Predict the 3D structure of the following.
Amino acid sequence: GQQVMQIPQYQHVQEGEDFTTYCNSSTTLSNIQWYKQRPGGHPVFLIQLVKSGEVKKQKRLTFQFGEAKKNSSLHITATQTTDVGTYFCVRSSGNTGKLIFGQGTTLQVKP
Amino acid sequence: NAGVTQTPKFQVLKTGQSMTLQCAQDMNHNSMYWYRQDPGMGLRLIYYSASEGTTDKGEVPNGYNVSRLNKREFSLRLESAAPSQTSVYFCASSQISNQPQHFGDGTRLSIL
């Protein structure tokens, strides 16, 4: 399966700073899902984007799906220590339901 | 409401031993999945079951077998464990394929 590429791999920010992670695919995506995994925890679903150019917000988190449906981003405004973890963008493979995980972006927040 | 339950949470095996990891979900989901996660990496799909009675290979199926025992339960078996199978194993389920997945807490497996 074709992976989605995520950048950066790691990000350290001071609490209160903003954070953005980017997800890129060489092929058009039918949808993109975002998951968060806390250290020592399991992935937790955050959101699914389906439409070209879609923007969704969850409190301080803003998710975007590119116009060409080949990229996506997650932006966190004014990070908090509770935002620490690894954020994965995930594409689905055809109609099989198989999820292809990106490598993830690990966010560290310094208080 | 437990969601997805995995047992055991931790296990240490010797090379060549066999073991079955258990997974059960109580959300009446049709699709179930097994992943492995190695340090610093994303999750890689081992096997999945789109619906009761069907199973299919994922990205890394070698060395593993699965059984969809019923709609609730999906087990993963290592017939002859190898050190390369040391990993954290996650089970997940979704209402149908392509829908958001709910994950269990994981099984941390070490093979010596």
